[in-house]
Amino acid sequence: MAHLQILGAGVSAASPPKLTLGARLAYGFGAVAYGIKDNGFQYFLLLFYGTVIGLEPALAGAALLIALLFDALSDPIVGYWSDNTRSRWGRRHPFMYAAAIPVALCYSLLWQPPDWSNGALFAYLVVLSILIRTLITFYETPSSALMPELTADYDERTTIQAWSSFFGCAGGAGMAVFMYAFLLVPTERYPVGILNRDGYEAYGVISGGVILLAILVSSAGTHHRIGSLNAPPPRERKGVKAVFAEVLDTLRDKSFFALFISSIASAVATGLTAALTFLMLTYFWAFTSIEIFYWTLLVLVSAFMGLLIAPWASKRWGKKGAVLRLGILAFTIQPLPVLFRLVGWMPENGDPLLFPILAAVNTIDLGFIIAMQAILYSMLADLVEHTEVRTGRRNEGVFFSALTFIRKTNQGIGAFVAGLMLQAVAFPEGATPGEVPAESVMQLGSLLVPSQWLLWGIMLAALAFYRLDRHQHQSNLAAIEARVGARPPALQGERVLRTQLRQQ
Q1: Which of 170, 223, 428, 438 is most buried, most CB within 10 Å of its CB?
Q2: Mapped to the 3 state alphabet, what secondary structure does 149-182 carry?
């Protein structure tokens, strides 16, 4: 029988069994689910409801923000619930399996709105956005909380998160490529492909099916690890107030708070940019449908770059140093093409040099951003042990409920601000590229550039207060190992017997 590390209830495994390649890929593949959902919310939802369906952009943005407020309540509750669940399938997997069918169904319905009035459409969008956000929380938060349980290794966590980021970006971008290649195509009824309502409805059905597949593959592919995961803490009755008090206690850690603020600023900036991306490509740069198709296809190249860069940069500079270097580089570059256009330094629309220049800049820049975000999420995993040493509690679910909240902030606050910008410049609904006033297009660009730099600046400034490094992480693991070894046998967890039975 393999050597077993004896654990007390609620105490972490300092050295979990080595993670196989199959389990690593299965875990990462699950990110396809929220990659598709994130891509849809970020890039297409505002465009679809505001331009294709005809819902006022400000109302569409407000609907997403309302859903975010409900989400802010569900995330920590699900995270805490996941931390404390007892079942034959462990703490995380019951939630992951349960989310699969409902979230896939609701996401499909989101892209098939009935022909209702503005007010009724607003209500439809609010209800389905709330349902999707809540249901994806039931998968995403427990799934994310698995990562620090799968491995305690400082560098392997970055690698696992890099794979997850790769699959998330590849899933979202791959579905977008599929949309442009086969669904958002010009027809007699919809001469402008990006305004093809039928294509969006087909996208909803197909993407719902892929989301279902991704969740089931990830859940089943990590199911065999249940016996080696951490046991829940001792049973303790706590009300909602106590749950949120525990979340606030987590925020008192300076490194966690720095990472939390940094991640929120990054997410809002990313969400704002994403919500306006296809509008900028279509109206600001006047790219054709085929050019937008190639632009989206290049995201797959960026995702692969991020997969390679993240582990390398983390080992070379440490996680904080890597994020700061990659962030400064990426966020300096990102707004420059729009800024140069505003001052007349870019080729004119239609110039054959314009697309290659912008595509090359965006592909490289996005690769840096993907790598940076993968390392950022790995840093959060390291804080699990850091806080455990300080408080004696291991709250992966609570920690990563903050992570899922931050990710969803992309669509909520980012899309809301984007909607306000469109309203401020009087951007017309349902207009073809040639029909949008040049003044509105340029005003949109002049609002976007300073907003991006402000948010990225806040992100990097907050990250400067993060203190946890490789040496401190090793010290935390050693402290946890010593604490586990000092526990009386009577207090050792029930997980041991379960693990022994599985290994026999």
Answers
A1: 170
A2: HHCCCHHHHHHHHHHHHHHHHHHHHHHHHHHHHH
CA-to-CA dists, residue 455 to 27, 152, 375, 440, 476, angstroms: 31, 32, 19, 23, 32
Tokens at residue 155, please?
């560098």
Domain that holds residue 400: 21-503
Write out 112-128 in H/E/C secondary structure. Answer: CCCCCCHHHHHHHHHHH
Three-state DSSP at 491 gives helix
- Specify if 2 maps to a domain: no
* Distance (Å, whole) CA 191 – CA 204: 21
Give the gyration radius of the chain's Cα atoms.
23
Residue 165, pLDDT > 60, answer yes
Residue 453 lies in a domain: yes
pLDDT at position 495 over 60: no
pLDDT in tens, 471-485: 888 888 888 777 766
Nearest to 400 by CA among 31, 45, 93, 143: 143
Question: How many distinct structural domains can be found in the chain?
Answer: 1
Whether 258 maps to a domain, the answer reads: yes
In a domain, 350, yes or no: yes
For 98, residues 6+ apart whose C-beta sits below 8 A from its C-beta are: 138
With vertex at residue 18, the alpha carbon angle to CA 13 and CA 21, rounded to the nearest 5 degrees, is 135
Q: What are the φ/ψ torsions at residue 287 (nearest 5 degrees)?
A: -75, 150
Q: Report d(CA 468, CA 382) in Å as an integer.
A: 8
CATH number at residue 160: 1.20.1250.20
Q: How many CA atoms lie within 13 A of 253 on its CB side?
A: 23
CA distance 400 to 476: 19
